[in-house]
């Protein structure tokens, strides 16, 4: 799954998960128009619970069970021109359904590196509610009261906001509680608990599929002598219109010369295959490779970017955030009964053979990794070259005659 800090978490194959979101939202009702005045209060309470057993390897998911309840009360008193009115309404309902819980982990490239995890519950839940209302009024002349009742049905939507938290420094239990303000102004109290159920004893067997990185013309990129490159285009560049996230055929080419795409060759797969891409220790991204020719499957063209604004400029997963020197890992996994996984890795910026700073020629050195000693040697070597070049140029200018120290005036 990953190296270093994520090794322990990568051994978990199943999680027991339960998430709860409880919302309280109270507002006052206060309005006046001329002699008419309305005073009251509106109170809303709703809760949704999601639970299930998450399974996976690079990304854990489950089609979880959702249950929810809703209670809403409104009371208002209206007066004006001798009229007195009291309105009361109640909304009640509950429902069950399903939604996808997903758990992803990654390492942020801070100093020192820090791990994070993200939990999402996709879909939310919509269910039926019953609305009951009553209105009591009193005639200002006769003081005769009248009362009316009304009942109807409707629906309500509930959801669980995404959770993004730091990985704990010890243990394998993910749990917490936090308050989140929703766009409506309501306060959501979100709690979650994930316990590991099963751990992997041995690494998965290889599937026997062939994984490849392809360049902008669908040529195979060899990680031993090549590397992926950061795009030289701004993401809003019109030249990138040929590198959209959808609509690619199998032999399509990209207009960005640094673009790349993923390919899986598997004779036993179906209409499409699912792969996971991870750059460095960042969160993983799932891609569906659904463009097929024979036993080969290809996905959309992707671009590596190093700027947050550039990453956000396209509302798709076409842009992949990275840093020079990081490793890109492509994983292809099949669930039981196959229970296997293939992996393919490549560098960004330079391939491994170019990262040798012990090579005699400084032209082969990676200047991003120079030590202070190597840097001093390189500067000294460059200075000697410049001195020799300068002396040769001066001697040629003066007819090739050697100069004594006293005959040269240095300002």
Descriptive report:
The chain is mainly beta. It is built from 3 helices and 20 strands. A hairpin with a 3-residue loop joins strand 2 (36-56) and strand 3 (60-80). The chain is elongated. It starts with 6 loop residues before the first helix and ends in a 14-residue tail after the last helix.
Cα separation of the termini: 63 Å
Query: Hey, roughly how much beta strand do the residues contain?
Result: over 45%
The radius of gyration is: 33 Å
Shape: elongated
Major β-sheet profile: 10 strands, antiparallel
What's the domain count?
3
Mean pLDDT: 78
Structural class: mainly beta
Write the layout of secondary structure elements.
Elements: H1 7-10, E1 12-33, E2 36-56, E3 60-80, E4 83-108, E5 114-122, E6 125-138, E7 145-158, E8 163-166, E9 174-181, E10 187-199, E11 210-214, E12 261-265, E13 273-279, E14 285-289, E15 291-293, E16 296-298, E17 303-305, H2 308-312, E18 319-321, E19 327-334, E20 340-347, H3 372-397
Parallel strand pairs: 17-18
Antiparallel strand pairs: 1-2, 1-10, 2-3, 3-4, 4-5, 4-6, 5-8, 6-7, 9-10, 11-12, 12-16, 13-14, 13-19, 15-16, 19-20
